[in-house]
Amino acid sequence: MNTLDQVLETALQLPYEQQEMLIEILQNRLRENRRAEMAADAEKNLADFHAGKFQRQSAQEVILALRQSLHEPEV
Hints:
The chain is mostly helical. It has one domain (4-70). Helix content is 75%, strand content 0%. The longest helix has 35 residues, at 16-50. It is elongated. This is HigA protein (Antitoxin to HigB).
């Protein structure tokens, strides 16, 4: 398996235009992967919602919980 340094060194040996193409390809693939993750997460949450795994809350309760979570340390 290649290390990041090896990959970068190889990429820097490419002509400038190909380096730009490589960057664009990587960015597109990252976006696609992130979209797929978000879609899978949304499907799971929707299934959980339909299965009744969420409790009903008022908008005020949700806002309060969000505000409190801003002050909690990240784990």
